Amino acid sequence: MKRWLVMCMLILLLVTSGLALFPGEKVYACSCVESDVQKRLETYTTVFTGKVVKKGGSQLYRYNGVREYTFDVDSAWKGVSAKKMKIVGKDGGSDSCGIQFEKNQSYLIFASLDERDNRLHTNLCSRNVPVEQAGDDLKLLGAGKVVSKEDFGETNDGGGQSGPFYLILYSAVILLAALAVVWVWRRKKRN
Fold first, then answer.
1. At what angle do helices 2-21 and 165-190 cross, to 10 degrees?
2. Rounded to an integer, what distance in angstroms lies between the CA atom of residue 109 and that of residue 139?
3. Tens-of-pLDDT digits for all 191 residues of the chain?
4. pLDDT tens digit string along 96-142?
5. How far is CA 73 from the centre of its chain?
6. How far apart, in whole angstroms, are the C-alpha atoms of residue 4 and residue 9?
7. Chain centroid to CA 36: how far?
8. Under DSSP, is residue 123 helix (H, G, I), strand (E, B) or coil?
9. 3-class SS at 32?
10. Pick from 48, 83, 84: which is nearest to 69 by CA?
11. 21-29: long-range contacts, CB 8 A cutoff, minimum separation 24
């Protein structure tokens, strides 16, 4: 019983030291900087109007919930590489900058490439709006390029790694360290 208690304490020590070495990110309430549509056109990687044709399930990405949406692109101003584009939206409420898109609804989308997972991401601060509410923004953007399958092909799969790779890596390191402690402890016990 004493051995079991020692092992549990060692594992707990390894886990807590791992959390101390690899702390999570700070979380802040959503606060968006106001910008006009021309500034957003310059800033974001991809700008288009499109209809949501697929709404994926919620996933974990860098301690946040996200959801992948597939859009059938109608018009493009910047960064469109296929008729169907996948965009990752931050899930959750407006207090956490989350955004929800409804299936079969058309939106004006502003998204940025996240180099950590090589996917296009957006959130509440990107100021994505349903096309019916985007009249002034669309006028300021001017005529976009109408997109068809012949222009790019059918789908941009979004690429990227799925899931929080670094959490898996940290867990593996902690597990290996715990196994090493057990091995050393057993070896000393035999001698």
1. 150
2. 15
3. 577 777 777 787 777 766 666 555 555 567 788 888 888 888 899 999 999 999 988 777 766 788 899 999 999 999 898 899 999 998 877 777 888 999 999 999 999 998 888 889 999 888 899 999 989 999 999 888 988 877 765 555 444 444 445 556 667 778 777 887 887 888 887 76
4. 788 899 999 999 999 999 888 888 999 988 889 999 998 999 999 98
5. 20
6. 9
7. 24
8. coil
9. coil
10. 84
11. 22/166, 22/170, 24/63, 25/62, 25/63, 27/63, 27/96, 29/95, 29/96
H-assigned helices in 44-113: none
Tokens of 21: 């070495």
Distance CA 108, CA 138 (A): 8
Distance CA 148, CA 72 (A): 9
| Amino acid at position 112, single letter | S
